Amino acid sequence: MTLIEEFLMPGGGTSINTLPKVSLHDHLDGGLRPQSIIELADSIGFVLPTTDADALGEWFADQSNAGSLVEYLKTFDVTTAVMQTREGLSRVAREFVEDLADDGVIYGEIRWAPEQHLARGLTLNEVVEAVQDGIEAGIENVEKSGRSIRIGQLITAMRHANRSLEIAELAVRYRFDGVVGFDIAGAEAGFPAGTHRAAFDLLAREFMPVTVHAGEADGLDSIRGALFDGRALRLGHGVRLAEDVTIERQDDDNTFVTLGPVAQWVRDRELTLELSPSSNLQTGAVAAWGEELFDHPFDLLYQLGFKVTVNTDNRLMSDTTLTQELALLSDAFGYDLGDLETFQLNAAHAAFLPLEDREELVEAIETGFGEA
């Protein structure tokens, strides 16, 4: 797994690595270092496919290229297995923050599902506190190196389970101790957001920001549920919103389209799409449009004025970084620094932070790109 690799913009040679970035959709259990997995597995007697770090990183990437979200999710059985102790959770969270900073991220939201980390006797409160301890240690290490980063937890409920109300209560309980929002994740098809209406009602009463995985492994009905039942401010992936965009005709200079009601609503309300290009290819989320990055409807949505953001989803499984995702998109669609800045500004405006803090993020991004 390549944690630090320099990517340059075509022509000008500006390093994408050093540009200030905002990461909105990044799973804690999808961003472990292979060597850390090996060491943590050894400490608890968990058997891995291999104990060579490079080979293990390749194993995760190979297993994740199944073209199915269900198959893709099976790799998390390994990562969550080594995240069942205070030490494991704190270490993974600390290293996660350090790796984000090495990728040029100045603000990141880390999403993870506390209910998946109770196998060795920890309570929900204890796992949240362990992760927060690791986050704070990571921030401290980043600051020692002369850089800065801010991190918020997105507490996630598993949509195929029945603990969402309890997890929503957990998120509210820790909203001033590191938690900035709520999410539901896991197998999407067959598990609509409406199943978790009680949790979303609680979150709405408490004015807790919500993002919902939708439009990845399921289509427009799932997105409708995220908007109606979840009151989502952002769509986790949301790539299949493009199913509600009809291309009427094209000529050499223009593409004429019609937006369906769901797409029209999302665009007109400037609801943010947390797109993850490499992951979307791996899970088959964009199979209706093709198998290459150039086929991804990212550019279509961007050109139509949707609030698109760029994310990694799971850095280990996709063997990627936010820098790499931006470089891949730049290569596929010819984006320049102005486009990349727009993606970061979109993310900054959509962060689950107070307005004043978002304005500071915007200023930091504009300054960083202005100096590039």
Written description of the protein model:
With 372 residues, the protein is an alpha/beta fold. It has one domain: Alpha-Beta Barrel (TIM Barrel). The chain has helices spanning 34-44, 53-64, 69-73, 76-81, 86-102, 124-144, 164-173, 197-205, 220-228, 261-268, 277-282, 298-303, 322-333, 337-350, 355-370; strands spanning 21-27, 105-112, 150-158, 179-185, 211-214, 234-237, 245-250, 255-259, 272-275, 307-310. The chain has a four-stranded parallel β-sheet, with helices on both faces. A four-stranded parallel β-sheet has the order 5-6-9-10. It has a two-stranded antiparallel ribbon with strand order 7-8. β3 (150-158), α7 (164-173) and β4 form a beta-alpha-beta unit. α7 packs parallel to α8. The longest helix has 21 residues, at 124-144.
Task: Give keywords.
372 residues, alpha/beta, TIM Barrel, 4-stranded parallel sheet, 16% strand, globular, metal-binding, hydrolase, Metal_Hydrolase
Summarize it.
This protein is an alpha/beta fold. It has helices spanning 34-44, 53-64, 69-73, 76-81, 86-102, 124-144, 164-173, 197-205, 220-228, 261-268, 277-282, 298-303, 322-333, 337-350, 355-370; strands at 21-27, 105-112, 150-158, 179-185, 211-214, 234-237, 245-250, 255-259, 272-275, 307-310.
Cα(first) to Cα(last) distance is 27 Å
* Beta fraction: 15-25%
- CATH fold field value: TIM Barrel
Q: Describe the strand arrangement of the main beta sheet, using strand numbers.
A: 1-2-3-4
**How many discrete domains?**
1
- Overall number of strands: 10
Average pLDDT number:
94
* The top level CATH class name: Alpha Beta
Largest sheet: 4 strands, parallel
Helical content class: 40-55%
